[in-house]
Amino acid sequence: MNKNYPNTWHSIIVGAGASGLFCAGSYSAPKLLLEHNPQAGRKLNITGGGKCNFTNLQATPNAYLCGGKHFCQPALAAFTPVDFTALLEQAHIPFYEKEDGQLFAQSAEEITSLLVRRAREQHTEILFNTEVLHITQGQGLWRLETSRGLFYAQNMVLASGGYSYPSLGADGFAWRMGKELGLQTLPPRPALVSLTLPAPWRAVCRTLAGNSLPAEISTGKRKERGMILFTHEGISGPAVLQISLYWQEGEKLRLNFLPGTDAEIYFKEHKNSPQLFSKLLSPFISPKIAKAWLGELDVRAADAKKDILHAAARRLNSLETIPSGTGGFTRAEVTAGGLDTAQFHAGSLECKSLPGLFVIGEALDVTGRLGGFNLHWAWASAAAAARALAKK
Ligand SMILES: Cc1cc2nc3c(=O)[nH]c(=O)nc-3n(C[C@H](O)[C@H](O)[C@H](O)COP(=O)(O)OP(=O)(O)OC[C@H]3O[C@@H](n4cnc5c(N)ncnc54)[C@H](O)[C@@H]3O)c2cc1C
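Above: the input record for the complex with flavin-adenine dinucleotide. Below: its predicted structure, written as tokens.
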């Protein structure tokens, strides 16, 4: 303990969420973990609907949106999904693969408890109900002003997450701190989130709320296939959450409710049928969804003029609309944007201009696709920082 600076630690980690807890348990040094919530891993506990989709077997840099194209590579290569499952096996925590390489636990709380235990075993003191207010640097030490007074550390790890789910403690502290420390940040944006549609389509979605169908959704050059769920304000479901990662405000979205089928050709093949289009589509789409989506264009095939047939087919295969917004940070699974990765060493997550400062997890401008990739980034970035901290 430094006499001039009581309360001086080898390292202080801000945030006892996924990345902070994992980092604390991955190297041995007297360290302090500060958390403003009354407990650890509040968000972690509700991930994957309480079952925690903790990794994905296909966790490669392609699954991430990040300013620096290859930035995630070293951390992901050094900490793989198998490294995390080995920890679970050692702790006798059961897990299973759901689909597309997504690994789930039986209970997210079991994972949180394991991470807290690991952190304590590696000489971590955890202080709850402690809000970090400001961080400054001077005389080779980091000075943390908190709701419980001043703390000092040789190394600082910012693991405070993003803005999403403010009810669980997220408040964008990393963006504020980044600015105070003179670092570049990319603006926060809700991602893996539902989209709201403009007035006429919103009304249709409302009548279909709770129904879902397999579809294709695209924006710019990105295309996603998967389930779309209608909500009271627009659309959600896996395909929508994925596309929300790439969609920017004001951009067009294209919806295809008949992926792999050309509706115009199909209708022409049935042009003498006395059935309504919505009925004719029943091998592909539930008549309820088709009827609501086609609206005034839902006519008998035999009566359909050329322009109506064409318009109905376009509405099914390539409806274009500009979403009016997203479900916002209250509903977004993650926050895109964050501290610009160009300022950090990719292998250690240490800041190039401020040695001794590490930023991990969602606070960095690295956002994963839906399916366990964000938690895997939390673990991999935490492990990378821990390897470097162990040598300090
Ligand atoms: C509903 C939901 C479900 C999700 N499901 C999955 C899933 O199944 N799989 C997946 O990969 N990802 C999932 N995610 C995303 C995943 O939870 C995050 O990517 C991950 O938790 C990020 O880890 P982190 O450590 O960066 O931030 P967090 O886990 O958010 O931890 C940050 C911690 O810092 C604390 N903190 C913030 N500011 C301060 C401060 N000033 N002082 C003290 N403490 C502070 C916060 O209270 C919090 O505990 C889900 C997210 C949500 C919202």
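Notes for the reader.
The longest strand covers residues 149-158.
The CA atoms of residues 193 and 331 lie 6 Å apart.
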